[in-house]
Design a protein that fits this description.
Elements (H helix, E strand, L loop, with lengths): L1 E6 L17 H11 L5 E8 L8 E2 L3 E7 L5 H9 L2 H18 L3 E5 L16 E4 L4 H6 L9 H5 L7 H27 L2 E4 L2 H10 L4 E4 L6 H4 L13 E7 L8 H14 L3 E7 L3 H11 L8 E5 L3 H9 L3 E4 L8 H8 L4 E4 L17 E2 L4 H18 L1
Parallel strand pairs: 1-2, 1-5, 2-4, 5-6, 6-7, 7-8, 9-10, 9-12, 10-11, 12-13, 13-14
Antiparallel strand pairs: 3-4
Length: 388
């Protein structure tokens, strides 16, 4: 059987390019699982938006095809800032050529927010959409508390980085176009892979005739193979928290800063909060917004770490905190649970589906509530301190 994957995430057969970080972990893990299935031939297509052209990579049962879509020239760049239609048309046209050349038995599309999902309107081969996040939810979470427009969102950059301001402002304007396209993909397609109550419900809302297959997420092998388990080690007067993932606005960095400040100012506890995957540059925008300095409240941006380094940092922390405004089934929460860590997470999207019925529902907290989050962090810390 030959399966054709369409992925937004770049993949490579080169080990140094598959580090399992910045969103690559789950799809690389799924790739290894798929290649363990006998008589399965896999073709993976991804959109290469880098100006450097990538070449096809191939082994006995795996072919990786970069779809080079970088457009050159001022006119094209300006046009693409206004609309993604020409890029979409090019991607669909090139994708159909790849489908014709490879003649798969099944087309597996990762995510409904990209134009690959429109392929079902052009082919007779079965197409299944593997729901990731949903752009409608992301758009609903773009503006943070205290912001009433996208101009408010990006105006701090206007004087220092005017070109960057207009580029980001226009990109988020384009998100409405992407939102509408996603709705069409959900309405037109028949087959969907879902994994939470939330993504199943949203698909059913748009498409009552959808065939939904439950498919859980693949975790990184480094976590699955890890023999170590988290042990309570609360220290008097100190709490060590950890958050992982990219430091985008929808991931709640403003909430993290506010929560850390609340704990610092209202308890006698010293806070060390590690953000793996975020950088000092990432957090500056949210420091300006909240008037809270990361360094002053104990938030340390640790940048990119390997899976082994992440495991070490997680096991040395008191608890994992997920403060996101928008998510479906974040692997970061699953990885922390797999190590046996206590987890506090915001009740957004499909996050609630990642916890067993026995888990303390008080630790699934409302979005954008640093006061409740701070209280639950301290409550969980006290429990760990008493049991250690």
């Amino acid at each position: 059987m030959k399966v054709l994957w369409f992925s937004v995430t770049p993949l490579s057969l080169k080990a140094e390019e598959n580090t399992g970080i910045e969103g690559k972990g789950w799809i690389s893990s799924l790739l290894q699982i798929a290649l363990g299935i006998q008589d399965l031939e896999l073709v993976v297509v991804y959109g290469n938006q880098s100006p450097f052209k990538k070449e096809v990579e191939e082994t006995e049962r795996l072919k990786i095809i970069p779809l080079n879509i970088c457009r050159y020239g001022k006119r094209q760049i300006i046009k693409d800032m206004m609309t993604s239609r020409e890029v979409d048309d090019f991607v669909i046209s090139e994708s159909l050529k790849i489908v014709q050349e490879n003649r798969p038995d099944l087309i597996h599309v990762f995510g409904a927010e990209w134009c690959y999902g429109m392929l079902a309107s052009y082919v007779t081969i079965p197409v299944v959409i593997h729901i990731q996040g949903l752009w409608s939810q992301i758009r609903n979470s773009l503006l943070l508390p205290g912001q009433s427009s996208l101009f408010d969102r990006f105006k701090p950059e206007l004087w220092n980085h005017p070109l960057g301001f207009f580029a980001r402002y226009q990109y988020y304007n384009l998100s409405m176009e992407r939102h509408r396209r996603e709705e069409e993909i959900l309405r037109r397609n028949t087959n969907f892979m879902c994994r939470t109550r939330w993504d199943q419900s949203v698909v059913r809302f748009y498409n009552k005739n959808a065939r939904i297959f439950h498919v859980d997420e693949a975790l990184r092998q480094e976590f699955i193979g890890c023999k170590d388990r988290w042990q309570p080690h609360a220290e008097d007067k100190k709490i060590v928290l950890v958050t992982t993932g990219a430091c985008y606005s929808i991931k709640g960095p403003d909430v993290v800063l506010k929560t850390a400040r609340l704990i610092r100012e209202n308890t006698d506890c010293q806070v060390e909060w590690k953000w793996i995957g975020g950088t000092d540059e990432d957090i500056r925008e949210f420091e300006r917004l909240t008037k809270v300095k990361a360094q002053e409240v104990g938030l340390r941006m640790m940048g990119t770490l390997s899976a082994a380094e992440m495991i070490r940092e997680l096991l040395s922390s008191d608890m994992y905190v997920h403060a996101s405004y928008s998510d479906n089934s974040p692997n970061a929460v699953c990885e922390a649970q797999y190590l046996g860590m206590p987890v506090i997470a915001t009740d957004t999207g499909g996050v609630i589906s990642l916890f067993s019925e026995q888990y303390d529902r008080n630790m699934i907290v409302p979005m954008n509530d640093p006061f409740y989050l701070a209280s639950k962090i301290m409550e969980l810390r006290e429990e760990g301190f008493q049991n250690s």
